[in-house]
Amino acid sequence: MKAKKILLVDDDGLVLSTFGKGLKDNGYRVSMVDSGEQAVRLVRNESSFDLAILDMRMPGLSGIETAKVLAQFNVPVIFLSAYDDEADVKQAVTEGALAYLVKPIDVEKAVPTIETALQRAMEIRVLRDTEIRLDSALETGNLVNVVVGILMER
Predict the structure, then answer these.
(1) pLDDT tens-digit series, residues 31-44
(2) Helix, strand, or coil here: 7?
């Protein structure tokens, strides 16, 4: 199976290098950037990430603001933070986060969370695709019903 592509976004260079290396060592393809703005540019140009891991608190675009933009490209998100503040966790959940990791990160312990998030993201994608197909079928069915109704009136 193809290695999953992860976008890692954190303004802390040490987190980027150590967590990024750990993810690569675990078989993921990792792109690393140090700002929300760079993440948005990268996703706009590539938009083929299986998952983004975003630091909650960054200068410029915050993790939450970045997640809102990435959602437009259907990129699922895990938030990363040095704080386990209840308000932050609640906000992350409200924004559709698949998980919330607290620094310092132990990569080996984070991998099961990442794998679970990737699985949930795939299931959500399948549900969205199914919804689109069903909506299309309903529209087509409704159109056919209207045409049949018109023909029956004649």
Answers:
(1) 999 999 999 999 99
(2) strand
Q: pLDDT, tens digit, for every residue of 58-74?
A: 999 999 999 999 999 99
How many beta carbons lie within 10 A of that of residue 96, not counting itself?
13
Cα distance between the two ends of the chain: 57
Whole-prediction pTM: 0.82
Domain residues for the domain of 57 are 5-123
Q: Can you give the CATH number for the domain in which 69 is found?
A: 3.40.50.2300
| Dihedral of alpha carbons 126, 128, 111, 14, sign | positive
Domain count, the chain: 1
The H-assigned helical ranges of the chain are 13-25, 36-46, 63-71, 86-94, 107-153
DSSP 75-92: --EEEEES---HHHHHHH
Residue 144 is predicted with a pLDDT of 67
